[in-house]
Amino acid sequence: MKRLLISVTILLSSLFSAIPAFAMPEVESCLNQLVQTKIPEMEGANAELLMSITHEGSQYHWLNLARGRGALGHAEIVIKTNEQAGCDIALYSIPGPLATKEEYDEVLGKTVNEKFIQAFKQKRQQM
Residue 65 pairs with which residues in a beta bridge? Predict the structure, then answer.
């Protein structure tokens, strides 16, 4: 009975977690830190890791965040992590007019954006 209670408690706590567990714990930890410090409006959002790339020793992770239904509860975020425990927002965008490639190049850097474009194309071809 005690094991069942513990199992149910773990299951329920995972269902109500603000950010679901990723295969990459450093991404989850970074995102939780950023939600607490820089984007509190996304507290309680579900996160979906879409793609990760590496550039010059840093990892960039493209995520979709969603809080409920409707455009106002959604955002795209690219977080940048590195081995020195660095964690920062490289891109944060709420839905609106579609950004151009040039705008993404300006915010992320042309090389990083190109790597994401290629990675997404490869992923789409594999589907």
Answer: 47, 75
What are the extents of the domains in the chain?
25-126
11-18 long-range contacts, Cβ below 8 Å, gap at least 24? 18/43, 18/44, 18/45
What is the tens place of the pLDDT at every residue in 32-82?
A: 999 999 999 888 889 999 999 999 999 999 999 988 766 567 889 999 999
Measure Cα distances from 37 to 32, 40, 58, 87, 89 in Å. Answer: 9, 7, 21, 11, 11
Give the chain as a DSSP string.
Answer: -HHHHHHHHHHHHHHT-SSPPPS-HHHHHHHHHHHHHT-GGGTT-EEEEEEEEEETTEEEEEEEEE-SSSGGGEEEEEEEEETT--EEEEEEE-SSSPPPHHHHHHHH-HHHHHHHHHHHHHHHHH-
Under the banding of pLDDT at 50, 70 and 90, the label for residue 21 is: very low
Amino acid code (one letter) for 94: I
